[in-house]
Design goal:
Arc Repressor Mutant, subunit A; 3 helices; three-stranded antiparallel beta sheet; HTH_proteobacteria; alpha+beta
């Protein structure tokens, strides 16, 4: 008699399509900082995904801000989606 093991699919992925979709879904609701992308979405290189989204026609702007990691303050990008067609 074997035990049934259910594997839960992770909401995080290293797949670039998945990461772009996660970032875009976030941006549809609110701006996203580099630190939030890393901590909340597990996207380690959000600038690359933002560039790809821009190349796909999304109107995303970058504002620079200062944010704290708890250890130090860092200059980080804050991305905002201006409009969707």
């Amino acid at each position: 008699m074997g035990a049934t093991i259910q594997i839960q699919q992770s909401k995080y992925s290293t797949d670039t399509n998945h990461q772009r979709a996660a970032i875009l879904a976030w941006l549809l609701n609110s701006p996203l900082t580099t630190l939030q992308a890393r901590q909340e979405l597990d996207v380690m290189h959000p600038a690359a995904r933002i560039l790809e989204l821009r190349e796909a026609g999304h109107n995303i702007v970058t504002h620079w801000t200062t944010d704290s990691t708890g250890k130090a303050k860092h200059r980080v990008a804050c991305y905002a989606l201006l409009s969707e067609v």
